[in-house]
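Dear Dr. L.,

I hope this message finds you well. Following up on our conversation about the binding site, I have prepared a predicted three-dimensional model of the protein together with guanosine-5'-diphosphate. For your records, I am including the exact sequence and ligand specification that went into the calculation, followed by the structure tokens. Please feel free to forward this to your student if that is useful.
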Amino acid sequence: AEDEVYCIGCGAKIQTTDKNQLGYTPQSALDKGLEKGEVYCQRCFRLRHYNDIAPVSLTDDDFLRLLSQIRDDDALIVYVVDMFDFNGSMIPGIHRFVGDNPVLLVGNKEDIFPKSLKRNKMKEWLKQQANLQGIRPLDVLLTSAKNLDEIEILLNTIEKYRKNRNAYVVGVTNVGKSTLINQIIRLNNGTQDLITTSRFPGTTLDKIEIPFEDGKMLIDTPGIVHEDQMAHVLTGKDLKYVSPQKTIKPSTFQLDDQQTLFFGGLGRFDYISGHGAVITYFENNLMIHRTKLSNAENFYTKHVGELLTPPDKEGLEKLPELQRHEFHLDEKSDVVIEGLGWITVPGHSTIAIWAPRGISTVVRRPLV
Ligand code: GDP
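The resulting structure of the complex is given below.
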């Protein structure tokens, strides 16, 4: 009965003989699909389990073509960023391809931030950062792709601003965009033919389309690779270790001047002048070591990859060297290593923050 089966993703007739033709699915997958009552062709299956889609580089011709398509469509842009790695989430030049389209800015991974941090301050900060990039979002929404209730709020917000238009979801890799899309698909689960897949016209890039009730689409675009991210300087194993899956528990250190904190072997904080309580926000299992500043260099050389992990031995080979950034802080501030964590430091302090080359460090007003 093979000729009667159609892919519930794209509608192609399922066949098991020609890998390169539409509707191909391996026999074993077809059997499994028939059992479950939902058969996908291999291509749609991969789209659905989205991680198989290759990310694109910012200069990829296909990607540039895709951007001009987005600019030419009268649509809502849903711009997903990682609250824990704002600079690493930036799409350079986003204001150019957004054109006149309205932007809903979505700050994902909100669950990582302790409840003591003010949500409206987080939003305000996100808005400011967006303005620096030349975009003025209609609205800013904090969300967590891990929480279905929040996805529902996200969908309602998209609906509110969409006004009978398509909505494009854009974001760089690792911001949690596929987790979000998969959750949206899960929420829609009553409807069988919920994704239709195709390529962006004139490109080799795959898209996922989830229909709205008015026939317009929520369109997921490919993730864009942004080199300046922890994901690109760490091995998969080390990345997993430093990426918070749960709410961060802050730690307080009473520091004097000329003291140093190491965050595994991936970051370093020197208190050059000033003193008082600094509060650290990092993955709860990441080891924080205190040394004297005068001894810090030796300590690092001797222990990185062993006592100071991550990186482990293998990760150390991949890791760019730590670079030093010095700041004088008049006021109490957060000193951020993007994608790794941050430290709240008292005012009247001079500090140095060290991060792997390529990883941004930022000073911002505390979020408390
Ligand atoms: P994509 O490359 O943008 O599609 O990102 P993924 O969906 O693959 O997610 C990247 C990493 O972030 C994975 O380890 C996810 O588990 C994690 N992640 C995604 N969304 C969230 C979130 O809302 N909270 C937390 N804590 N982690 C998230």
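In brief: The chain has three domains: 2-48, 50-220, 235-364.

With kind regards,
A. P.
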